[in-house]
Specification:
This protein is α+β, with helices and mostly antiparallel strands. Helices cover 51% and strands 16% of the residues. It contains 9 helices and 5 strands; from the N terminus they run ββαβαααβαβαααα. Strands 1, 2, 3, 4 and 5 form a 5-stranded antiparallel beta sheet that branches. A hairpin with a 4-residue loop joins strand 1 (2-5) and strand 2. The longest helix has 19 residues, at 170-188. It is globular, with a radius of gyration of 16 Å. The chain starts with a strand and ends with a helix.
């Protein structure tokens, strides 16, 4: 999914990826950086991402922090991870959303002023053995996944019920609560 960040004159790429093999984070980042050397790239554990809005709001908050010179990290890619994980500490952010040996569902985030770089980056995914574009896990929900995400983001049943409306799904509510936590993180930095 490509999104224009007109306020920043950049384009955002968010892709769900599935790996059939063990993921080596550093090797994958090195390869992606080769195809998109002027882009900011981050890869996250897809099991801990609620959906496209979760990533989009993390990127927007990180970009605003960058422009306003109030970043938690010195690196925009890490800042995205910090906001997406709703953590102030980089170590905690990596523990929550970082790629582990058993990670098979990935979310690729890339920001660039050069759309051609993002196209090359998408092409590189196709060329990578054991890796394919597949965002179906971002849209699939079950009670176990919701419970796991509530634990990850420290959201109680009471919080969920406090904003429940007639037609809201648990997924929508959880995503709203995580985005709200991101907003709170942004104003406390």
């Amino acid at each position: 999914m490509l999104i224009q960040l007109q306020e920043h004159n950049k384009t955002l790429l968010i892709e769900g990826l599935v790996s059939t093999e063990r993921v080596e984070f550093s090797r994958l980042m090195l390869m992606f950086s080769k195809y998109a050397p002027n882009s900011t790239i981050q890869i996250m554990d897809g099991k801990k991402v609620l959906g496209y809005d979760h990533v989009l709001f993390a990127v927007i908050n990180a970009m605003h922090a960058y422009v306003e010179k109030r970043m938690i990290c010195e690196n925009l890619a890490l800042e995205i991870l910090v906001y997406a994980s709703v953590q102030r500490q980089i170590k905690n952010s990596v523990e929550i959303l970082g790629i582990k040996e058993d990670t098979r569902q990935l979310v690729l985030v890339a920001i660039s002023e050069v759309d051609k770089e993002l196209d090359k980056l998408k092409e590189s995914i196709i060329l990578t053995q054991g890796l394919r574009v597949d965002d179906s896990f971002l849209n699939s929900w079950n009670p176990e996944k919701l419970d796991s995400l509530k634990r990850t983001f420290k959201i109680s049943d009471a919080e969920v019920e406090s904003i429940r409306t007639g037609s809201s799904s648990n997924r929508e509510i959880l995503e709203k609560l995580v985005i709200e936590k991101m907003a709170l993180l942004a104003v406390t930095v």
